[in-house]
Amino acid sequence: MTANEMWGGRFAAGPSAIMEQINASIDFDKRLFAQDIAGSKAHCAMLVAHGILSKEDGDEISQGLDKVLIEIETGKFEFKAALEDIHMNVEARLRELIGDSAGRLHTARSRNDQVATDFRLWLRDAIDGLDTQFAALHKALIDKAEKHADVVMPGFTHLQAAQPVTFGHHLLAYVEMVGRDRGRLADCRKRLNECPLGAAALAGTSFPIDRHMTASSLGFDAPTRNSMDSVAARDFAMEFLATASIAAVHLSRLAEEIVIWASQQFNFVHLTDAFTTGSSIMPQKKNPDAAELIRAKPGRIIGSLNALLVVMKGLPMTYGKDMQEDKEVTFDAADNLSLAVAAMAGMVEDMEPNKTAMRDGLVNGFPTATDLADWLVRVLNMPFRDAHHVTGSLVALAEKNGVGLDELTLGDMQTVEPRITKDVYSVLSVDASVKSRVSFGGTAPDNVRAAAREARDRYL
Ligand code: ARG
User: Fold this and answer.
1) Is 111 in the pocket of ligand 1 (CB under 6 A)?
2) Which tens digits make up the pLDDT trace of 156-190?
3) What 3-state DSSP class applies to 420?
4) Using CA atoms, how far apart are residues 344 and 257, in angstroms rounded to an integer?
5) Which of 13, 136, 140, 380 has the CA that lies 20 to 30 A from 73?
6) 319 CB under 6 A from ligand 1?
């Protein structure tokens, strides 16, 4: 072994310890081992198919790579920081196993196109895994929405009770958000699914390689079209992080609602012991820790997006070592989003509405005031603005008397608007209100059941 384990030809001395430490990525990029080996095998097969590598060398390399894979999978592989990264670690071990022919694998290739390929392959798998998890969350939301299609609760704007809705309808709002999140992940997957392998360092290669062959054998739709872009681009990771950030924000909104709903003050939902924890000092407590942690996850996921955007900003073409900073943040975001989705799916399955508290939440705040205004428009042919004004006076009267709108006497109501008849009471109940909201996308229980069925067909 020369003084410099990797670059002995040009380097007379080894790196300083700090250089080795700042340079090494093996601690985190070892996660790319399966993709790295798959990429190398595809490259090797292509080199053989096009006469760039002999069949014998190719067979040795391919079998050697299989052995390395098994060693890593079974925990027998020794990762070395002195060998910088996963690419050099695999290649060095291959050389130990098969000897000099290992050195031929890197023909017409560079770590620049290698890492870009590995990372895209990894992210593609991560996206597929996330989509499966999001599908489970979708199922939990749709099942629960269908089950509680006619459980009434206050719908809020400004966190003020606004109009009655059903719990099912509320959950279906998240079904839509998750649907778009999955759509964004699918878009991202489609755009990233082009193969940089064969771009070599940045300019392509003089060897008669077949980039279409490696691209298709690795399941890519096509090779990337420009060799410089191939090694310089990381927008596939930025796009993933942007998508992950939006999805995490959606999860955090639902998490926050669960925190609110599970509080004693609301008591809208019950969470079992499976998704709560106790307090070390207050024996009565049951805290919604999972929901709180999901609420917090956008902190690190948006942080990851921000970190990578800032790393990439202003980087000149093509590859720069700066770009090695792309992996930890992406791994961390993918891991934490995955955990958050899994926890949310479990919590949605687990949670049961407290129907009485939800209905009680509709006693105050005059949630059927809009129904009353609509009645004035429909039955008395009042312009909506006037109806709004009359209803406002009726709300003020009810508030003064300390009663709900449906508890005002007809005589009281007629002091505000003499043409009001007792028919008005038919629209003042909470159940009548939700049943009447049959417009497309509205909260009527029959709508909710139909929407849940359609969501099932669309997403599951
Ligand atoms: N570990 C490197 C990374 O993650 C691999 C590519 C290294 N390329 C280079 N020219 N030094 O970016």
Assistant:
1) yes
2) 999 999 999 999 999 999 999 999 999 999 999 99
3) coil
4) 12
5) 136
6) yes
